[in-house]
Prior knowledge:
This is Orn/DAP/Arg decarboxylase 2 N-terminal domain-containing protein. Helices cover 33% and strands 22% of the residues. It has 425 residues and is α/β, with parallel strands linked by helices. Pyridoxal-5'-phosphate is lined by residues 65, 67-68, 86, 109, 195, 198, 233-236, 272-276, 386.
Amino acid sequence: xxxxxxxxxxxxxxxxxxxxxxxxxxxxxxxxxxRDAFLVGDMEEVVxxxxxxxxxxxxxxxxxxxxxxxxxxxxxxxxxxxxxxxxASKAEIELIKEIGVNPERIIYANTCKQISSxxxxxxxxxxxxxxDNELELVKVSENHPKxxxxxxIANKDSNSSNDMNAKFGAPLxxxxxxxxxxxxxxxxxxxxxxxxxxxxxxxxxxxxxxxxAHLVFNMASEFQHKMTLLDIGGGFPGTVEAxxxxxxxxxxxxxxxxxxxxxxxxxDVIAEPGRYYxxxxxxxxxxxxxxxxxxxxxxxxxxxxxxxxxxxxxYLNDGIxxxxxxxxxxxxxxxxxxxxxxxxxxxxxxxxxxGPTCDPMDxxxxxxxxxxxxxxxxxxxxxxxxxxxxxxSTFNGFHPPHIHFAMSPKAWEDxxxxxxxxxQA
Length: 425
Ligand code: PLP
């Protein structure tokens, strides 16, 4: 199955970098008046991440979390390399099925599903679905009796910046009852899942959750559920700057798997990584479309180069209703990079950055000391691939930035190699 062609990408020959591609696009735009914000999706980075995942977590099959970034060339590359998919909704299942992926490679990983979506999953051949409560089991028994259910358990203390337990997961002391209910409803429960939350600061939470999952596997045998699947969720960091590295988490996971689900235990282990794959693969280029200078009445100076007499307001052509939507919520103000590096002697002014809409909440950054910038200047933001494009809106009529997809010949070779391996397996 060919999901995607080499010709769907801008091929970056040896020595040509993503930054070169950005410069090229900016130079071309600078010849015209169209200076729309744009994104570059570096698919080589996604291929590298996939290879690293397979090497570092050799027993774990990735099921990419589509919710994180659902652009078609990206999911097609992942399909080509043999990844499975974690879909949260009917629309995500439709997307993955439409590109031609076998429904066995999909887990419908949303514990609370609309009845019509459960029926849709049944008619589409998607069998693996998660649950964490009794009423969901009743809905499934009536609308998808052949489903293979995965019990999502709560984590003890996820210690993450975005705690999933507030909304999802069955506490351990409810699991026996849920497994018994499933048995009485004639519903098969094939495994356990968890998600440690986004920005998890303690890798031991993975070990604790794997140990908890093991307890639930034992409980399941009391009710003759034959469990064969452990789903360790997402929460893996997307950049090397993260406080806890992917490798540290992987070491903890591998050792916990060896203890609780050793090789030969007939348990398939999957994960639902989202940001790990895409965060660092996308870069945003935004243009300054308007500027306002305000004289300061009561100047306050902080540092030699800082000029206290005026402050600057810069209006960009992307904002919190676009690429910056969840970014500010998840990571705080992202770090800006000047496309043209200003001279270090230039005075600095108190500056704020705003999105293009008429909403005063549409602010990207404040209290920044920046050299004076001009209308038409470009700013770059790296690491914008996760929970950005998917959460963009067209508020005020501003459309999300166009995405240019880049790939290198070497990475394309790796894709084809992984594809052959997957097809032979
Ligand atoms: N799986 C589930 C059920 C999720 O809710 C999420 C994120 O919300 C993910 C996977 C992906 O998480 P991450 O992007 O942290 O890997």
